[in-house]
Specification:
The protein has 95 residues and is of the alpha+beta class. The chain has one domain. The chain is built from two helices and five strands; from the N terminus they run E-E-H-H-E-E-E. The strands form two sheets. A three-stranded antiparallel β-sheet has the order 2-1-5. Strands 3-4 form a two-stranded antiparallel sheet. Strand 1 and strand 2 form a beta hairpin. The radius of gyration is 14 Å and the shape is globular.
């Protein structure tokens, strides 16, 4: 059996302690590490970034979505996600 990643965190200054698990925890760690530059699915590949961000927002985190244009053989737009909430991580349990 594989143990999933778990992160215990809270939104500062007075949020309650919560747990993010699995890919949601991975996304939270990535957002915290990226800081103000944020993350994109191009730079930090993950199959469902929009889903992880949706779940984290439901936990009370403020995450901005910025739509950026890109060129290349398949021009279009991609999302950049920027965490605006101050987050304290109490514990991280890895597999």
């Amino acid at each position: 059996m594989t143990k999933r990643l778990e992160v215990q965190f809270r939104v500062e200054p007075d949020g309650v302690w919560q747990k993010a698990k699995g890919r949601d925890a991975w996304a939270l760690i990535s957002l915290v590490a990226a800081g103000k530059r944020g993350v994109t699915p191009i730079d930090t590949p993950g199959p469902r970034w929009s889903g992880y961000v949706f779940n984290l927002r439901r936990m009370g985190l403020i995450i901005e979505t910025i739509h950026e244009a890109h060129s290349g053989p398949f021009p279009g737009t991609h999302a950049r996600y920027v965490l605006h909430s101050a987050v304290s991580v109490l514990e991280r349990a890895d597999a």
